[in-house]
């Protein structure tokens, strides 16, 4: 008598596991949620040996929705080799699930690694003018690094779910990389300013990059980012 219910249970259990393991495309963004993003400030710390951190700067992320696009304005101020380095970047993006860039303007100061240039992306190619003059391919479906900071807050938070996209762009260097995979690891409570914060931990991998981790709250706030295992950004609340 109990064989059929058990069989049905096992079937749906196996089906649910296979569904979670399936690589899915990025979901479409919740524009109402993104419209409420506003401006967020993150403390940037460099993690050296285990448990040791040195505060080195701040990152400000601003998101604005226009009638037919999205404007991302990001400012990075930090200390590098004993001197202040700044980077101001403005991206004009399409209203699609990749926040596909159509124009990127970057102004770097304090170090040669952060240059000043303008890039216009049209029909799969970027025309770059400034300190780096060149034309390069930007395939359809490319996600820039800081655009993903917004997109990751839109990903359905279900442990084991996996999402993929073909290309990622480190826009400050116009460095194109491939084969990105995003996995929702599960729930994790982190300590932020001595206060426990319940989050979902999400892992991002790709060709030529170290594992990157994102912690997103149940309310869809990007609480923490860890890049290269040593560059940590933590959301700052209040003034």
CATH architecture: Clam
Helix/strand order: HEHEEEEEEEEEHEEEEEE
Give the radius of gyration: 20 Å
Strand content: over 45%
Number of helices: 3
Rounded mean pLDDT score: 88
What is the strand and helix layout of this fold?
Blueprint: H1 3-21, E1 23-25, H2 31-35, E2 38-47, E3 53-65, E4 69-80, E5 83-94, E6 101-109, E7 117-122, E8 125-130, E9 134-137, E10 142-144, H3 145-151, E11 162-170, E12 175-192, E13 195-205, E14 212-217, E15 222-227, E16 231-236
Parallel strand pairs: 1-11, 10-11
Antiparallel strand pairs: 2-3, 2-16, 3-4, 4-5, 5-6, 6-7, 7-8, 8-9, 11-12, 12-13, 13-14, 14-15, 15-16
Please give a structural write-up.
The chain contains three helices and 16 strands. It is mainly beta. It has one domain: outer membrane lipoprotein receptor (LolB), chain A. The chain has a 16-stranded mixed β-sheet that branches. The chain is globular, with a radius of gyration of 20 Å. The termini are far apart. The model is unreliable at 7-20 (pLDDT under 50).
């Amino acid at each position: 008598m109990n064989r059929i219910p058990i069989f049905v249970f096992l079937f749906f259990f196996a089906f649910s596991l296979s569904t979670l393991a399936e690589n899915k495309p990025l979901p479409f963004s919740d524009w109402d949620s993104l419209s409420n993003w506003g401006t967020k400030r993150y403390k940037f710390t460099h993690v050296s040996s285990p448990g040791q951190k040195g505060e080195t700067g701040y990152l400000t992320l601003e998101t604005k929705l226009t009638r037919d696009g999205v404007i991302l304005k990001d400012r990075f101020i930090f200390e590098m080799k004993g001197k202040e380095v700044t980077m101001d970047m403005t991206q004009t993006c399409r209203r699609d699930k990749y926040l596909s860039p159509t124009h990127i303007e970057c102004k770097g100061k304090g170090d040669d690694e952060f240059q000043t240039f303008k890039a216009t992306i049209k029909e799969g190619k970027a025309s770059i003018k400034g300190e780096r003059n060149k034309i390069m391919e930007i395939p359809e479906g490319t996600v820039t690094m800081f655009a993903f900071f917004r997109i990751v807050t839109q990903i359905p938070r279900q442990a084991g779910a996996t999402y993929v996209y073909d290309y990622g762009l480190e826009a400050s260097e116009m460095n194109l990389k491939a084969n990105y995979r995003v996995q929702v690891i599960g729930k994790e409570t982190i300590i932020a300013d001595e206060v426990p914060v319940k989050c979902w931990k999400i892992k991002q991998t790709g060709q030529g990059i170290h594992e990157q981790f994102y912690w997103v709250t149940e309310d869809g706030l990007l609480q923490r980012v860890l890049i290269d295992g040593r560059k940590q950004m933590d959301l700052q609340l209040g003034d």
